[in-house]
Amino acid sequence: MDFNLDLVYAELADLHPIARFASHSALDLDRIEVFSPASRPRPGTLFIADICTCMQQKHDIAHFGSFVVLGYDADANHLSLEGLNAIFVPATEGLPSPHELLGRLLEYRMRLDGWAEGILAAMARDAPLQEVFDVAATMFSNPIMLSDGALYFVLTAGTIPEGFHDRLWTPAIETGMCPSELYAEAWAACSGNAFGRRDAYLVPNAMDDGRTYLVRNLVCGDAYHGCFELVDVNAPFTPADLALADRFGDMLNMILPRKTYPQIAEASLGPLRDLLAGSAVRPRALECGLAELGWKVDDSYFVACFSGADEEDEAQSAQTLRRISRRYPLARFYREGASHLMIARNDDYPLSVMHDRHARCDAAPDTEPRFLAGFSSLFMDFSLVRTAADQAAFAYRHADKGAYAGRFGISRTCFYDDCWFEDAAERLALDDGVHQLLDRSIVELALFDARDGADYVPTALAYLEHGCSAVRTAEALFIHRNTLAYRLKRIKAISGIDLEDLAEKGFDPLRIHLSLRLLSKTGTTPSPFPSSDADRK
């Protein structure tokens, strides 16, 4: 690993060196040599010389490269060394000779090489990110914290003192989310491009508590993948820490295109956007992200996929989004391909109200729709938002099909709950439709319903969907419990299925429920099953 004068200066701290060079984090040295009359100028070389050897030179040695000068006397007149890019080591008892110092610096460079190789080896074998940072922390006196692109806490490494409390770090570690408002304010006060800088930088006294933070962004191309930072709880920062942080950041940037570590592989746009993109999001990070929106993890929600009838024009697409976002200000919107996704809580915009409004087909039959939309089912788990989006996209593709579409004004819509069996048939490759999934007894019940209009299929479905509770089912159907009891007896007599004792009689509740849903959604009269081999021919 290459090095620079800042790293050498930190290594020689016990000799109380004097810096006569400009600090920077670039590692511009790759060779160490004891200076002699035979030495020649060479960029990237660190020369070690005693003060007498330097003073005896008849020509200017400033252009040779960088120097470590031993035996410097601040009171002496060393005008010939003015302008030398060097570290001056004062003359003290126990001062090493140039060759002794050469051995020490070569050993230090071997430690740097081992550190860099350890990090690269861990990344090459796809070791856990925690292990990579544990190796990196061995060269720093202060602890490291990693945050992803949305400023969600990922991990810490290094030594954190007992009883440690910090206004930035402690909330991040405890909640899984960095206090982004505090970060933005503190970082922006230090740099006008705090989250776009590609070099390590210091944020002094960020929280008015005297602490300084060292920050290194992880930026690949134009994408911000997060940052790691150190806080000076164990030792003050030195320019060497900036150089090492930049080197470590460069190594992390090399693996970002490989997407080995999902925490920093993609530029995060927030937990919902990450979930829609198929990326994993930690539960605590999702909870914090939803809290920023005023939502809770147990809120019921749905996803709508929409666009204009002809969205080839980008301006028209933007106009469509503006109109819908103004109408549903509490929802969140995301672009996906040529269409848009809307995520909305059921408490804000009840899905059942939308369904009922569009099911009325309140539009002139010959009116051409100018807006298409598909709606998912209701979900209670935001980690399944990608599944909800897939449902909405499926319904969106069926919005033009009259069998399932609803109309309201210039809109044509489709709800997944109305066409889900088409999705099931498509996924299961049922060439003959979903009738292969029907239970014979439920078909007989549906045929009886079709003849007599007795509503036994809706009654059976409601009974199962309300947990086989007579009270809740009667309330949902707006009938008396005695009426429900009579219907259940008739269902048993017609189909042979005792809904009040399914397990005892050996019926398959899943298949019965599926059959009831299929027959209640299709709105068609099923064909009787063939009763013999002769009928099947």
UniProtKB/TrEMBL annotation:
InterPro entries: CdaR-like_regulators, PucR_C-HTH_dom, PucR_C-HTH_sf
Protein name per UniProt: PucR C-terminal helix-turn-helix domain-containing protein
Any coiled-coil regions, as ranges: none
Domain PucR C-terminal helix-turn-helix: 457-504
Annotated signal sequence range: none
